[in-house]
């Protein structure tokens, strides 16, 4: 696990780079002004939601070394909590989001308890329980979906200070703001003392305990915080992207998506979550559009879909062989080489 | 970030392509959000195969609808909501959209706001959100032929006809074995309502997804000793239910399948256990209908057929696709009658669907007599009073065993309007009148 620590050293530098400021400027101003609705609705909104889920899981798995297969469950908790809070309490939007994050944190805390005793694969299996339990409970008890006969709910509209946030641009800006703030929050957390405790536990739990790191507290804080962030990602997925909420949308496949995002992107880096989400969301779309342009109508669309999957799978394997630390490490290497050449 | 640039380039290329296509006049485009891979591929390939086959027939035989060529492309959804939404975003930039047909409740839900803003019809034949039947609240959504409540009523009416009338239902016991999913649970309140109204007992038992182990449920059914079991299944749950019923000694001819438990793919894997199994349908199976014969003659012999397995021609899903094709094409034809024989806007096609009235005589002209009965869509009834029939499995194929049966629409309507009016109030939507329905965006 020491290789992970190496990559971690680079991430706090993130803020010092001017590219980040330029990037945010583009994201907040240029994209809403220039991008087509397709780019925002079909690419950027799912990208932002999954990237945030990746940031949340990275906190737990990348920095904390606790493998979780229950990410989609916590996304579901966040989405359904936001729906019910808005339906029953009618609070202002920021408070709704905060409360749904707290709900996800509470559920995360409960399912994080086994982590005090279990490690590695055993913990991963116990988080599977969260995945199945949450989906089952949301389907079983009609109260969660306000007794909607089919169990699929349209997300209610969002307003902030009297303004409707239902337009494409408004939803994008809301998602972008939340993702930016939470990512900065996670960055501050991992750079702080609790973050160091977490990394110490990941690298050697026994040694950490001996030098006085509060293992129980740190693990539970990590579970709660990670679940809260993933809960907000679930809110984004349901309210800003799909605008419908159904338990089946948060199945095990979604959990795997989030896990793959951080593995491919790079564990224990913030950039990794974004790069991984980019690959998982954007790459299949590019591939599908390119192949539709090149072969559309000539080949059965089912065959085309399967071929794309093979290509995507092969590429992921190739990436991971070339750089086991993920896309973030590739990016760092490219940057270093670039810097050396310009000197 | 270079990938952003690449996306922009890709988007621009597509926009240019779409603009190029718009320049060609007199085409009507169908965006097909199909699914040919994944767990529901059997339904997807059959349905979209039939839909495409019918459109190909219209293009090759008639040169389009009154000279307007039908064009389409496919976007694979795998029945997953987020993929369907991406396809919707991708395909909606195309000009001349006639109607959307995603064949998925989840995708349809996610598109309701979008199609309403775009003013393009969204067709959910035989499924969908029940309260979209109320066209006063949902102007662009059409659960054509059969919504889940009508299906329930049709099944109960069929059981009544077998027992000798609705009065004979008194004191009977019916078990509903339903799939443990939102789809499966949708009709729970309606069965209870009908049980109360007609005086039968209903016991509803859930089978957890995916349903490949049903020992406990059938043990309970044995204890209950019902007169009928209604199978409200999906996928592998259906053949497993039939084989488990046989093992428990429950007579298969007293099991009635619902509209998603009625295909060859549901009965065939159960082997002998399925012989005598009866299921509801809006479109009979078989290839003896004139429209199917024409499709075989002019589409398949010319090598333009969409199904790769020709033995599936005339199967339940294929015929549903063909009926769906007829309904879409006739809506365009009816709208052309009012607006002219040219490419129509989505809102004009919506008007066509709201006047989609096909009498049994018209259905016969279309070569579909006995394939489906009739439809009578109005601005406030987007289901269109579809009739149902029942088919029995003989081990090789389905045979029609009933007349066309009408569900009890009058009984269901107040429940539907209660739900749609609540939706309108929650979303702050107006209730349309027939004058509103005649205002059409050109």
TrEMBL record, chain A:
Its main location: membrane. It comes from the Bacteria. GO terms for molecular function: branched-chain amino acid transmembrane transporter activity. The keyword Cell membrane applies. It comes from Cypionkella aquatica. It holds the Pfam family BPD_transp_2. This is Branched-chain amino acid ABC transporter permease. It is found in: Cell membrane. It is a multi-pass membrane protein. Keywords: Cell membrane, Membrane, Transmembrane, Transmembrane helix. Coiled coil: none annotated. InterPro entries: ABC_transp_permease (IPR001851), LivM-like (IPR043428). The keyword Membrane applies. The chain crosses the membrane at residues 20-36, 42-60, 67-85, 91-113, 120-138, 144-165, 172-190, 220-239, 259-286, 306-331. One of its GO terms (cellular component) is plasma membrane.
From TrEMBL, chain B:
The keyword Signal applies. Residues 36-395 form the Leucine-binding protein domain. The keyword Ubl conjugation does not apply. It comes from the Bacteria. Gene3D superfamilies: 3.40.50.2300. Keywords: Signal. Residues 1-25 form the signal peptide. Belongs to the leucine-binding protein family. PANTHER family: BLR6548 PROTEIN (PTHR47235). This is ABC transporter permease. It comes from Cypionkella aquatica.
């Amino acid at each position: 696990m020491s290789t992970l620590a190496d990559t971690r050293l680079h991430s706090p530098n993130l803020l010092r780079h001017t590219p980040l400021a330029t990037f945010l400027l583009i994201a907040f101003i240029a994209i809403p002004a220039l991008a087509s609705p397709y780019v925002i609705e079909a690419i950027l909104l799912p990208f932002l939601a999954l990237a945030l889920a990746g940031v949340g899981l990275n906190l737990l798995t990348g920095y904390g070394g606790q493998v979780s297969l229950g990410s989609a469950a916590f996304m579901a908790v966040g989405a359904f909590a936001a729906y019910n809070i808005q339906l029953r309490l009618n609070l202002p939007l920021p408070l709704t989001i905060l409360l749904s994050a707290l709900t996800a944190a509470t559920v995360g805390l409960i399912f994080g308890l086994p982590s005090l005793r279990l490690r590695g694969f055993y913990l991963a299996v116990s988080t599977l329980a969260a995945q199945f339990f949450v989906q089952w409970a949301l389907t079983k008890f009609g109260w969660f979906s306000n007794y909607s006969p089919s169990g699929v709910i349209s997300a209610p509209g969002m307003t902030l200070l009297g303004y409707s946030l239902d337009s494409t641009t408004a939803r994008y800006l809301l998602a972008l703001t939340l993702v930016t703030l939470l990512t900065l929050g996670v960055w501050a957390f991992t750079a702080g003392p609790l973050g160091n405790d977490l990394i110490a536990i990941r690298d050697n739990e026994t040694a950490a305990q001996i030098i006085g790191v509060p293992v129980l507290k740190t693990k539970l804080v990590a579970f709660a915080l990670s679940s809260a962030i993933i809960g907000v990602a679930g809110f984004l997925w349901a309210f800003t992207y799909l605008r419908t909420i159904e338990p089946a949308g948060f199945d095990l496949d979604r959990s795997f998506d989030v896990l793959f995002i951080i593995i491919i992107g790079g564990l224990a880096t913030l950039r990794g979550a974004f790069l991984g989400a980019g690959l998982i969301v954007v790459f299949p779309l590019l591939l599908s559009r390119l192949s539709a342009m090149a072969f559309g109508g000539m080949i059965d669309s089912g065959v085309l879909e399967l071929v794309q999957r093979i290509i995507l799978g092969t590429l992921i394997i190739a990436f991971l062989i070339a750089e086991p630390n993920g896309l973030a490490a590739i990016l760092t290497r490219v940057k270093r080489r670039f810097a050396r050449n310009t000197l | 970030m270079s990938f952003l640039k690449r996306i922009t380039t890709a988007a621009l290329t597509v926009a240019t392509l779409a603009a190029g296509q718009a320049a060609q006049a007199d085409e009507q485009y169908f965006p097909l959000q199909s699914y040919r891979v994944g767990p529901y591929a059997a339904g997807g390939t059959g349905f979209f195969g039939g839909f495409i086959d019918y459109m190909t027939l219209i293009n090759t035989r008639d040169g389009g609808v009154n000279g307007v060529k039908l064009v389409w492309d496919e976007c694979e959804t795998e029945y997953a909501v987020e993929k369907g939404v991406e396809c919707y975003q991708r395909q909606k930039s195309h000009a001349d959209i006639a109607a959307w047909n995603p064949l998925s409740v989840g995708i349809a839900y996610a598109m309701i706001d979008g199609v309403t803003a775009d003013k393009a019809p969204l067709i959910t034949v035989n499924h969908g959100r029940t309260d979209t039947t109320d066209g006063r609240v949902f102007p662009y959504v059409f659960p054509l032929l059969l919504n889940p409540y009508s299906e329930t009523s049709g099944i109960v009416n069929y059981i009544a006809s077998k027992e000798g009338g609705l009065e004979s239902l008194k004191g009977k016991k019916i078990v509903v074995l339903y799939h443990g999913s939102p789809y499966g649970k949708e009709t729970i309140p309606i069965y209870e309502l009908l049980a109360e109204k007609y005086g039968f007992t209903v016991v509803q038992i859930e089978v957890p997804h995916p349903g490949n182990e049903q020992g406990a449920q059938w043990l309970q059914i044995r204890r209950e000793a019902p007169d009928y079991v209604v199978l409200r299944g999906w996928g592998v749950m259906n053949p497993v239910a039939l084989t488990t019923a046989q093992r428990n000694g429950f007579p298969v001819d007293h099991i009635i399948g619902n509209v998603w438990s009625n295909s060859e793919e549901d009965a065939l894997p159960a082997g002998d256990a399925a012989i005598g199994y009866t299921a509801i349908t809006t479109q009979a199976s078989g290839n003896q209908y004139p429209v199917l014969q024409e499709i075989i003659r002019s589409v398949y012999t010319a090598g333009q057929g969409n199904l790769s397995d020709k033995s599936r021609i005339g199967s339940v899903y294929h015929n549903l696709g063909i009926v769906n094709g007829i309904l879409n094409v006739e809506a365009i034809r009816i709208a052309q009658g009012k607006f002219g024989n040219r490419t129509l806007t989505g809102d004009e096609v919506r008007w066509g669907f709201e006047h989609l009235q096909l009498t049994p005589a018209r259905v016969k002209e279309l070569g579909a007599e006995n394939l489906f009965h009739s439809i009578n869509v109005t601005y406030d009834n987007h289901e269109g009073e579809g009739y149902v029939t029942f088919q029995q499995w003989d081990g090789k194929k389905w045979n029609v065993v009933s007349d066309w049966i009408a569900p009890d629409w009058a009984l269901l309507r107040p429940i539907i309007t209660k739900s749609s009016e609540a939706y309108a109030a929650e979303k702050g939507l107006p209730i349309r009148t027939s004058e509103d329905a005649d205002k059409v965006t050109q």
